[in-house]
Amino acid sequence: YPPFFGDTDADILAKVTTGNFKFDPMDWESVSEDAKDLIRQLLQVNPSDRYTAKQALNHVWIKDKAPNASDVSLRDNFVDNLRSFRSQNKLKKVALHIIATQLNDEHIKTLRETFVALDDNGD
């Protein structure tokens, strides 16, 4: 259920970089306004407007609603949509490249340390 859609990878990337997204009612009608608000905050183009991890964890949806989400049912095509999104390798590579170029040395160092700590077998 990605909020960014387009006919080509370039179309999707243009929407990602400009923050041009929408919640298609077909897929998002059962998603609460609080959840949509959190997603909007996380997708802010301007980093100074975008939620930090701490802000996200303190959002009303995470604090009050997410722990009680056991009664939520997923649409039948949920897994198919995830597989389709996962198969968009070019877009994923471009998006990861954009993210990586925004990281400073301290962020990279922290990520590397976290990865090494989680990598039990050193592969």
Overall description:
The structure is a single chain. The chain is mainly alpha-helical and 123 residues long. It has 2 domains: 9-65, Transferase(Phosphotransferase), domain 1 (Orthogonal Bundle), CATH 1.10.510.10; 77-118. It has helices at 9-18, 25-28, 33-42, 53-57, 60-65, 78-86, 89-102, 105-118. Helix 1 (9-18) packs parallel to helix 7. The chain is globular, with a radius of gyration of 17 Å. The two termini are 32 Å apart.
Report the structural category: mainly alpha
CATH class of the largest domain: Mainly Alpha
Rg, please? 17 Å
Percent of residues in helices comes to: 55-70%
Beta strand count: 0
Q: Give the ordered list of helices and strands.
A: HHHHHHHH
CATH fold field value of the largest domain: Transferase(Phosphotransferase), domain 1
Low-confidence segments, given as residue ranges, are none
In terms of DSSP E residues, the strand content is: under 5%
Per CATH, the superfamily of the largest domain is Transferase(Phosphotransferase) domain 1
Q: How widely separated are the two ends? A: 32 Å
Mean pLDDT: 77
Shape: globular
Question: In total, how many domains does the architecture comprise?
Answer: 2
Major β-sheet profile? none
CATH-level-2 architecture of the largest domain: Orthogonal Bundle
